[in-house]
Amino acid sequence: MATGSGSGKARIHLSGVFDGSRAMELASxxxxxxxxxxxxxxxxxxxxxxxxxxxxxxxxxxxxGAGATVRCCGIPPCVTEGLDAxxxxxxxxxxxxxxxxxxx
Length: 104
Prior knowledge:
alpha/beta; globular; 3 helices
């Protein structure tokens, strides 16, 4: 997990498998980050496990109203629907996501 912040904005870039452990790690980082806007890039995630996605939804629901605006990109459609329901902004990925089964 790579992170960077400055000027009130923070970015986090995830890779590998998004499982429950990675979801908790992300949630912990989001709780500690003091930036007004946080961008989370999932485009280098190889695979999303169902438990990781469930943990992500639960943790993001608990962070609602915490002050920071969270934006995500590189998310599969099934995850996008859950984020939309939570009011989390989903942006297009700047590059072809690894998890996508089709070629760019």
